[in-house]
Amino acid sequence: MLKATRKAILVLEGEPLVMTVFHQVLRSAGFDVHPATSAKEALEKFTHLRSRIDLLIADVAIPGSSGLHVALACCLISPKLRIIITSGAPSSTWTETETRQFDALPAGRVALLPKPFSPDQLLESVHRISELPEDA
Fold first, then answer.
1. CATH number (domain holding residue 105)
2. 2 lies in a domain?
3. Strand, helix or coil at 96?
4. Residue 102, in any domain of the structure
5. What are phi and psi of 135, to 5 degrees?
6. Are 27 and 33 within 8 A, CB to CB?
7. 64-110 residue pLDDT tens
C-alpha cells in the first residue's frame, strides 16, 4: 500500500504576523508549508521544489514585486498549479496591471481570499481549490 503524501503549500507573504498565522493554521491541518517573504525567494523555492508544491498562496502586495507576478511565473513552470491570491485591498481598487495579471491566471485553478480572513476561511479556500479535478 502506498503511503499518502502530505500536500505542500508555498506561501508568499511579506507580513511576519500573517505568515505566522498561515504557518500555524496550515501545519496544524496537516500541510507542509514552505514560506517565502519575497518574490525572489518564492521563485527560487518554487523552481527547486516545483514537483512537490501542490498549491501557491500569494499576497498581491509584496514589497518590490507582486504575488500576481510570482503566480504567473509559477504557472509558466507548472501550468496545473493551483493558486490562492490574498489581498487586503478589494480587487476593484487594484491597478490595471494587477487586474490584468489576475485575469491571466488559469481560470478554475485560482481563488481570491480577501484579507482579513479567519483560519476557517483559509482552510475552506485551501480545501476547495485542492479538491478540484486534475484537469480543471
1. 3.40.50.2300
2. no
3. helix
4. yes
5. -90, 10
6. yes
7. 889 999 999 999 999 999 999 999 999 999 999 999 999 999 988 99
